[in-house]
């Protein structure tokens, strides 16, 4: 079953079927127990009536046993002999003995003083029965299920066994039964009703579950169709329909649209990146090709210095593009322990061709200025910030390294024209250069600051820009302390 609706309907039907089966079984067991208890109570009443007669000394052949068909009776003595049975009782089971032919014991013939005994007995009663010994047991009777055949009809009965002591001191046991036909008919009727009604209930449950699930999943189908259209058309500007409810499906639709928005923005950034990269690479490559073609035709006109400069620029641009590609692919920063003050001093000392000298100030900290990360990438960040400062500074470039806010700060300042406040976030976008720095002879490709911020973020830090006093710009790189 590939359909969610079918699986949901089947699951609900199975659960309801199991629940109804368990509940039905419990109802049948309780009903049977109650009806069996009622039959046992009727059997006990019948047994006590006969036991009372025996305790009063009524002879076996004169016992009133009521309706023999409804309440078959069997009386046994201490030795298990059958001394009396109800009329037309032909067979019995469940009472301890299946004999139905009376065989009275001699002691059972003793009767009460008011009976048919000898009238010449002494008045003190020493030779006659003792009334004090006549009793019916008050203990709870024993119950058992069995069968009895009365006048050719065999049926199931609930038997109650009650003990009684007659005047002769003989303990007799009366087994009286009550029919279980009513219990069997009631249980059968209830069971039949349950079995006949169960398929109808299950069909209703399956149908309702199917309809409800279909209605609930209708927005999901709409989302699926729209996503299929988006996939086929590659139009990321489309959005899936959002239902007006506030349930999981509505949240799924909103999340899907947010994902489409992020994907559209990512694809757009990639397109711009490819277009800008192609544009930036085209210029130095075309310039280098032109110079080499001129040099091949007229060696005396070859501008070796310009060709080398274009080659260096092309090499730097390719390196930046490759690093950005690795960062976009999720490359993790290194875990080397670096002393940021020493890294900045080393990077400044290698910049022998800068037009403006760089002033370095490193604060002395007891625990050092250590961070963890990739030495190559962090050196690239410092170098890009210094390149940007050198490009825009007029007379001074300063670098300060200090501990601040649980991390290490590298602050690069220049006294140039600064960055307008409205442009302070835009300059960190890729291939973005402000209007007064767009000449390729003096400016870069617009990747340095974007690359620097990406590296800082992937190292758990941040890179921001503010004004530096009355004029100039201050770039602040914060990285978490290695501790």
Brief summary:
It is built from seven helices and 14 strands.
Structural account:
The chain is α+β, with helices and mostly antiparallel strands. It has three domains: 4-186; 236-331, Helix Hairpins (Orthogonal Bundle); 333-480, Histidine kinase-like ATPase, C-terminal domain (Heat Shock Protein 90, 2-Layer Sandwich). 45% of the residues lie in helices and 18% in strands. The chain is built from seven helices and 14 strands. It has helices at residues 4-55, 181-233, 248-297, 304-328, 340-349, 375-392, 448-458, and strands at residues 73-76, 82-85, 89-93, 135-136, 142-150, 153-165, 171-179, 336-339, 358-362, 370-373, 397-404, 407-414, 462-467, 473-480. Strands 1, 2, 3, 4, 5, 6 and 7 form a seven-stranded antiparallel β-sheet that branches. The chain has a five-stranded mixed β-sheet with strand order 9-11-12-14-13. A hairpin with a 2-residue loop joins β11 and β12. The radius of gyration is 53 Å and the shape is rod-shaped. The model is unreliable at 107-128 and 436-442 (pLDDT under 50).
């Amino acid at each position: 079953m590939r359909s969610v609706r079918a699986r949901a309907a089947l699951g609900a039907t199975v659960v309801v079927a199991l629940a109804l089966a368990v509940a039905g079984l419990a109802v049948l067991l309780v009903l049977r127990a109650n009806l069996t208890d009622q039959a046992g109570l009727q059997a006990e009443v019948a047994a006590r009536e006969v036991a009372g007669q025996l305790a009063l000394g009524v002879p076996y052949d004169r016992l009133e046993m009521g309706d023999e068909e409804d309440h078959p009776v069997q009386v046994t003595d201490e030795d298990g002999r059958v001394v009396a049975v109800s009329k037309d009782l032909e067979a019995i089971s469940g009472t301890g003995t299946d004999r139905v032919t009376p065989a009275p014991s001699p002691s059972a013939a003793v009767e009460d003083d008011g009976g048919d005994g000898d009238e010449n007995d002494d008045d003190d009663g020493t030779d006659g029965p003792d009334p004090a010994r006549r009793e019916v047991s008050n203990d709870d009777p024993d119950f058992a299920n069995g069968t009895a055949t009365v006048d050719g009809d065999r049926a199931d009965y609930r038997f109650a066994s009650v003990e009684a002591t007659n005047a002769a001191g003989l303990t007799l046991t009366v087994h009286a039964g009550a029919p279980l036909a009513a219990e069997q008919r009631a249980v059968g009727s209830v069971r039949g009703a349950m079995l006949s009604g169960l398929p109808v209930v299950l069909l209703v449950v399956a149908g309702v579950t199917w309809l409800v699930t279909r209605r609930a999943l209708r927005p999901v189908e709409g989302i699926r169709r729209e996503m299929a259209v988006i996939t086929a058309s590659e139009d990321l500007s489309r959005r899936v329909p959002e239902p007006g409810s506030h349930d999981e499906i509505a949240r799924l639709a909103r999340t899907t649209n947010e994902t489409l928005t992020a994907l559209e923005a990512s694809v757009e950034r990639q397109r711009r990146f490819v277009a800008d990269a192609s544009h930036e690479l085209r210029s130095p490559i075309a310039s280098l090709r032109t110079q080499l073609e001129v040099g091949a035709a007229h060696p005396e006109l070859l501008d070796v210095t310009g060709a080398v400069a274009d080659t260096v620029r092309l090499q730097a641009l390719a390196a930046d593009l490759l690093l950005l590609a690795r960062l976009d692919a999720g490359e993790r920063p290194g875990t080397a322990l670096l002393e940021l003050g020493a890294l900045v001093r080393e990077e400044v000392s290698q910049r022998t061709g800068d037009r403006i000298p760089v002033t370095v100030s490193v604060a002395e900290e007891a625990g050092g200025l250590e961070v963890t990360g990739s030495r190559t990438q962090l050196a690239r960040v410092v170098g890009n910030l210094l390149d940007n400062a050198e490009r825009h500074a007029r007379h001074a470039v300063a670098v300060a390294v200090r501990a601040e806010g649980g991390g290490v700060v590298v602050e690069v300042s220049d006294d140039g024209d600064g960055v307008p406040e409205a442009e302070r976030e835009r300059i960190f976008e890729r291939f973005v250069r402000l209007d007064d720095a767009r000449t390729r002879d003096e400016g870069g490709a617009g990747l340095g600051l974007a690359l620097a911020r990406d590296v800082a973020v992937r190292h758990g830090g941040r890179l921001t820009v503010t004004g530096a006093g009355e004029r100039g710009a201050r770039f602040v790189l914060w990285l978490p302390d290695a501790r």
